[in-house]
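hi! just following up on the protien thing from before. the input was this:
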Amino acid sequence: MQATAGTYIKILGYPTRRVKIRLTGEPDSLPHLAAYKAPRNQSIVEEESCPKVVLVRRFRILVVASLLFASSLALPAAPVPQAQSTEQRKTSEPYKGDLSIFETPGRDTRLQIDRVMDILGITAGKSVADVGAGSGWFTVRAAHRVGRTGEVYAVDINDEAIHYIEDRAKKEQLPNVKAILSTPDDPRLPAKAVDAVLMLKTYHEVAQPIVLMKNLRAALRPGAKVGIIDRNGNGEDHGVNRDIVVREAKEAGYTLADQYDFVKGDKMDYFLVFTLTP
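and the predicted 3d structure came back as:
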């Protein structure tokens, strides 16, 4: 601000007050002068009432306020939080039909289920969870593999499937099978009880896959492996693209350890193996 003799200056915070200054020296001397305190009822201050020059009242406050305003213009704008997408991906309706459909001849060979169990580390004495067990097709095969010293949890949201598996386990004399009626987003498995999990052609039916995978974490023992076998698709055609599964599993706290495409000759099916992210 360049001040000259006879200048009237409006003071911030005091809209009805003015101070008249008359310079008797150079403007550079202004910062070295003491502030003059005018009486409350005095709106104009003449040079005679203060030797040499009158420093505008509240001058320092005005300067500081100006500097703060100028510096605020140079600050980068605060980032605007990006709204998270709440759109839910498409899923297929869970199957509730005839369970015998899963018992098709040659399925063991097509899926190479023994190789799948080898990769998941399913051996004698291990504890396994078959999430989305359906008819118990994989459940009984895993039960034979782990033997009487191991356990297999057959998990399904369909109470008819649970009764079917319980009857089947009795008929086939598999006391190491325990059926669990779950909810769509919680497998309801015991804590720290499972060494390996397989979701066989089930993941595309899960409406809240990230929530389900998060709730599964508590049941996993150290080093546990989670296998997902599914086929590429758009979600509602009984398939889901593998990239989506990998992304959702990562968000739920898992790391992709291995991936295979041997489970079906047409290469549409994939087999993904996850472990807990450290």
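The chain has a mean pLDDT of 76.
The domain at 106-276 is CATH 3.40.50.150 (Rossmann fold).
cheers
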